[in-house]
Write the structure tokens for this entry.
Amino acid sequence: MVKALKVISRLRFKRVRTAVVADIRRQVSMDVGKRAEAGLQQNYQYKIIRIMRPDDANIMGNVHGGIILKMIEEAGCIVSTRHCNTQDGDRCLALLVRVEKTEFLSPVFIGEVVHITAEITYTSKHSLEVQVIVMAENILTGGKRLASKAALWYVPCSLQNVSNIMEVPSIQYVSAEQEEEGRKRYEAQKIERMETKARVEEVMPPLPNSEPHTVGFSQSSLIHLVGPLDCILHDYVHGGVTMKLMDEVAGIVAARHCNTNIVTASVDAINFHRKIKKGCVVTVTGRLTFVSNRSMELEVLVDAASLVEKEMKKYRAVSAFFTFISLDKDNMPLPVPPLKIKGEEEQRRFEEGNARYLQAKAKRLADNRQQ
């Protein structure tokens, strides 16, 4: 049965994977090969390999997107922190500030081995970009497939004073063109982060007894007390822990709307606005913003407030958009129930989500034509 599900899933994702593989190889794999020839690969790259266990997956055997996101962030944090500590001066820790659009190109199942490769691809004065690819391996056949890809941005913070952002050692680029492309990505994400901060808004509680297939009916929240196991050095929450909580809430919202098996299809840019410290109570809220025939966009917001420091008011810590799809028992896509809009604010968010959907669709078509 599991083997049949894998075959079906591979057919379903074949077109998407074909359009993306060449792009991944061009932007990451080719650079890795060239750096290996130059003896630079070990400095800029880190790998994590782990078998997927039953507690990593849902009842259908699909590994949770939040598990993959957490492993992606762990690899990115390690390679970034290692690189930033190659220079003299204070020791530092690389903290996650943004995750670019993350695509889940193929589902991962229990018993498969996940290979995560994180590589530093650009450095500015105070930040660095890490690109990550995730391969899933069937250990019975040895076959591998591209499961996911992501790009993350980190800043190094001094261990003596976490508020002190340190300078990042520069990397050696394969070509001037590669450096210029990285600079363009840096400028673009910087502008988007500033725009996202300006759009921070309060989350309104859902109306009681909301009608099915409305925003209020599926809107969900998770409250979590940040403990020592959630934190890295200096008692700040690990970015991967936050992303896992966000994926869990988004999955609950999507399942309530569809009442079917659902999986994460992609994650739009995740922006980490402020750090979250041990002892904070975080409220993770997810709500539907847009629904197409085959997918759902959900906004996930993370608010934090200190449990002991009364003077610290509640603040917005993280925000992101997740995209989910509905699947039947054979892991084939199902139509998504239409979203019933109530009020001007929901209509505005729906139109903005539609614009993002059309933009992403146009990009996929352009990539397909290019291939």
